[in-house]
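tokens incoming
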């Protein structure tokens, strides 16, 4: 009898228990197509059909343009730089922002591994939430490898924010 009950409970549980982190990253509010978790930090929103919010999609594009050459495709890491899909399992939003803005040097073992200082690079900083949101989705396994299969349209607020951040073309 006990065994039968246990079996029924196991069947009723989701295939993979939702980790605390995945639960904490859950979108609870949104503004102009941008989603936020319970801490008010930016996060992703992915529909049952795999369609991602615009920020996640934009983050995929920007990550691929600005970070992939060192950190590998899809946040999977390389022999040179760590897998950010792993890093974001523990790295806080604040530490992420400051690492990207200030850079970091690792001289351990006679190697020189350098995370460049990107705080003045508009192609990075004007999209830093997008990149964070994308990597957050990857770190939660909410998004698979490669180009997201579908996306919500970009919002006017996103476009205006990017234009204001990038400034007039020089
Ligand atoms: C020129 C190569 C290079 C580029 C381009 C680069 N990084 Fe890095 N990054 C590194 C290296 C190397 C490290 C590891 C430094 C260390 O060991 O302290 C690193 C570390 C980091 C870390 C800390 C990870 C951890 O586990 O603590 C973050 C976050 C990060 N990079 C984000 C980014 C983002 C976002 C981009 C794109 C906007 C980017 N990086 C572009 C080389 C790069």
């Amino acid at each position: 009898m006990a065994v039968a009950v246990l079996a029924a409970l196991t069947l009723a549980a989701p295939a993979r228990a939702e980790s605390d982190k995945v639960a904490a990253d859950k979108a609870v509010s949104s503004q102009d197509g941008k989603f936020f978790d319970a801490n008010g930090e930016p996060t992703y929103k992915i529909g049952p059909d795999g369609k991602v919010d615009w920020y996640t999609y934009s983050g995929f594009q920007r990550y691929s343009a600005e970070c992939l050459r060192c950190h590998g495709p899809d946040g999977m890491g390389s022999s040179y730089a760590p897998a950010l899909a792993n890093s974001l399992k523990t790295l806080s939003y604040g530490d992420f922002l400051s690492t990207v803005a200030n850079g970091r040097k690792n001289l351990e073992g006679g190697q020189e591994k350098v995370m460049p200082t990107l705080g003045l690079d508009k192609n990075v900083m004007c999209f830093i939430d997008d990149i964070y949101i994308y990597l957050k989705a990857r770190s939660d396994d909410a998004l698979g490898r490669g180009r997201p299969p579908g996306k919500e349209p970009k919002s006017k607020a996103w476009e205006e924010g990017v234009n204001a951040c990038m400034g007039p073309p020089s």
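note: The two ends are 75 Å apart (CA to CA).
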